[in-house]
Amino acid sequence: MSDYRAPVRDMLFAINELANFENVAALPGYEDASPDLVEAIIEGAAQVAGDIVAPTNWIGDQTGVRVENDRVIAPEAFRPAYKTLVEDGWLGVSMDPEYGGQGLPSLLGIAIEEMLQSANLAFSLCPLLTQGAIRAIEAHASDELKAMFLPKLISGEWAATMNLTESQAGSDLSVVSSKAVPEGDHYLVTGQKIFITWGDHDYAKNIAHLVLARLPDAPEGVRGISLFLVPKFQLDADGNSGEPNDVVPISVEHKLGIHASPTCVMGFGNNKGSVGYLVGEPNQGLAAMFTMMNHARLGVGLEGLAVSERAYQKAASYAKERVQGAAPGHKERGPIIRHPDVRRMLMMMRSTNEAMRAIAYVTGADLDRHHKSPEKEDRAAALARVDLMTPVIKGWCTEMSQELTSLGIQIHGGMGYVEETGAAQFFRDARITTIYEGTTGIQATDFVGRKLLRDQGKAMGLLIGEMRQTLAEAQASTNENVKAIAASLAVGVDNMEEGTKWLFANFQTDINVPFAAAVNMLMITGYVCGGWQMARAALLASKHLDEGTDEVEFYQAKLYTARFFADHLLPRTLGHLATVKAGPASTMAMTEEMF
Amino acid sequence: MKKIMVGLKRVVDYNVRIRVKPDGSGVITDGVKMSINPFDEIALEEALRIKERGEAEEVIAVSIGPADAQQQLRTGLAMGADRAILVQTDKLVEPLDAARTLLKLIEKESPELVIVGKQAIDDDNGQTGAMLAALWDRPQGTCVSEVTFADGKATVTREVDSGLETIEVDLPAVLTADLRLNEPRYVKLPDIMKAKRKPLETVSLDDLGIALDPQLEIVKTDPPAQRQKGVMVEDVDGLISALKDKGLL
């Protein structure tokens, strides 16, 4: 099917210029990550993603997965791709060198993750889940457990999963009922989990399942759940995978998209109980789970970008090739890219992708600052920003991917609706991203509840302050495009600030106020953050063009996409603000019976 | 063998659509992605495989070009070359000058084998390897698709117009790599990091005592002519008369 080439130039721009890689590389612990290596690393990953992983995408979608004899049969086509990623060291990019990782900044890890997700979203979930588990084990597990599992998980020789959901415990984990009973130096875990992504496969020699379960004396609710590491195979005396551990995939779901990602019902301990190890303190499972979740939420936000990028590449190449009637101002039949409405759709995809990439990578740099800054206050400030941006990236990028992958189909016309064209797969695959790792509604509640109201608007205030600095710079520019962008961004920032103020003034008047406003507030913030980063990009681009550059075309294009974003996407904040201020009345007016 | 020397030329990446400068003075390279010439990448891959089989001890990657050609040499080091030498110049280097320069490096390094691509995809001259062998006064095997070594000799299979030709050459010798010789490896992340610490020496043409002596004059660079729209003919007679109309028959 369609070729994928990682947008290396734009990635390098986002890494080096928007996320200021030099500052990241100067952090203690990142001495090996010299700026001159960035291009080589990104190019190297782009080759693997484009040549080895991307060609498996359509095959996986068509092959799908099934359960046979207590094991998942996943696409054979993925096996060499998984092997290459392990052998060539692409899975442990930003992991701890003490356990065999490359110790590179998360900023680079995120760029490589984007490539793998664009190349094959369903496949990329396997390493994504492993990485989330590694973060949780690093942060919460005992040294002994770390030594047993981290090196093999970081290399990719073993994989890992997240087992939270049960049939009665979805978004509400307080009613988790899986059990863990102490036995000797370990626990015996029993229970059934659903929606377990890549719950079973044999690309890796063992799978470490991180499972939420209750101890016998645990209190009810979320304060009574603990986290256990339950390997697929028990470890033998040498620490290698040995006997089966009574963990089996019972079935896989038949889904709208990500067909090649086995979404498993997992049975733990159906016969004798599965040997598990406690991760962290008893009854503190939720905290450990949030470590995994926050990592995964940023990762899923990135999926929104990644799948939209691939949809864009396919749509752009089709629009340049597909010849139809003469466009306005042309006499001859020509490619459909000449039509303003096709341009509108392509520009929508292109400019929003660039904005999403900018937000995600800049947040990646904040994450590195949080991990490595020598100043405690700087670390805390960086964390506050990452916390604020996590629901925005997850919520906004995945919501945008619904629109953008749909436009990808629209550009293909009738052929887009035909599966063999391949444009439909991106639309189907994108659909899950607003749901898993917390729906958009849950992201928005987290954003408004924890990140705005509970924080008393502090993190938001700092963000607005930084935006106003960029705004002042842009308003002072003599470049026509930058000036127009500044005018649009000014309205966007005002709207975001006004929405925030309205929320603080009204949230106590009606219990439904923050919840009804939440998604609209989140979307405003997404558009404005995107517009802000695109304004920064436009300022940088106009500076390069003024000073002289041998990449005139790249920076001109950046000015144009930033201008388009300001003209077409930023004004959407007006509508969302009006809805926020309308309050919850019309949303909640009908009685349940009236539905 | 102790040493194999491999030539790596920095060229516009093969994925880039080449565009001619408006004034016809050459092709646009500003802001364009540059890579190792694909045939040179194959040459390096073969050298690395020979070394990995234990038939050579060291692989040296060399390039002649601008300071930025260090990037391509770093890639070569990440693939597995042991060290690299850049002969730095911003001037256009013609095949004969390239061969003279490589000869100076040979005199310095005394390799038993030199492998270069059979041609570079920028100018497609395909001359450097053969010229180098002549200047060095050593045997050559060009357009190689397979090579083995025994008793100080290389047995090479060459891709020639009539098929395949197998010849034996005494070492030291120059080989030029053809497309089917091998499939170059992908670079591994840890090797990219290690490549930074491998030695990369930069010398000037002056250091080597080379004064460029251009023999060629570029008159004009033109893009290929646009393909004309085809016509469907009814039958063989129609085809013949159409060819006659064009003066082709």
What does this 3D model show about the protein?
The complex is a heterodimer of chains A (595) and B (249). Chain A has two domains: 55-88 and 120-283, Butyryl-CoA Dehydrogenase, subunit A, domain 2 (Beta Barrel); 289-585, Up-down Bundle (Butyryl-CoA Dehydrogenase, subunit A, domain 3), CATH 1.20.140. Helices cover 58% and strands 12% of the residues of chain A. Chain A has 20 helices and 14 strands. In chain A, strands 3, 4, 5, 6, 7, 10, 11 and 12 form an eight-stranded mixed β-sheet that branches. Chain B is built from six helices and eleven strands. Chain B has a nine-stranded mixed β-sheet with strand order 9-8-7-10-6-1-4-5-11, sandwiched between helices. In chain B, strands 2-3 form a two-stranded antiparallel ribbon. Chain B starts with a strand and ends with a helix. The mean pLDDT of chain B is 95.
Question: Could you outline the blueprint of secondary structure elements for this entry?
Answer:
The complex is a heterodimer of chains A (595) and B (249).
Chain A: H1 8-18, H2 21-25, H3 35-53, H4 57-63, E1 66-68, E2 71-73, H5 78-87, H6 106-119, H7 121-140, H8 143-155, E3 158-163, E4 179-183, E5 186-197, E6 206-213, E7 226-231, E8 233-235, E9 241-244, E10 247-252, E11 263-268, E12 274-279, H9 285-321, E13 323-324, E14 334-335, H10 340-372, H11 376-412, H12 414-417, H13 423-430, H14 440-454, H15 458-475, H16 480-506, H17 513-547, H18 552-569, H19 572-582, H20 585-588
Parallel strand pairs in A: 3-6
Antiparallel strand pairs in A: 1-2, 4-5, 5-11, 5-12, 6-7, 7-12, 8-9, 10-11, 13-14
Helix pairs in contact in A: 1-3, 1-10, 3-6, 6-7, 6-9, 6-10, 7-8, 7-9, 9-10, 9-11, 9-13, 10-11, 10-17, 10-18, 11-13, 11-14, 11-17, 14-17, 15-16, 15-17, 16-17, 16-18, 16-19, 17-18, 17-19
Chain B: E1 3-7, E2 10-12, E3 34-36, H1 38-52, E4 58-65, H2 70-79, E5 83-88, H3 95-109, E6 113-117, H4 128-136, E7 140-150, E8 153-160, E9 163-170, E10 173-177, H5 189-195, E11 200-204, H6 236-245
Parallel strand pairs in B: 1-4, 1-6, 4-5, 5-11, 6-10, 7-10
Antiparallel strand pairs in B: 2-3, 7-8, 8-9
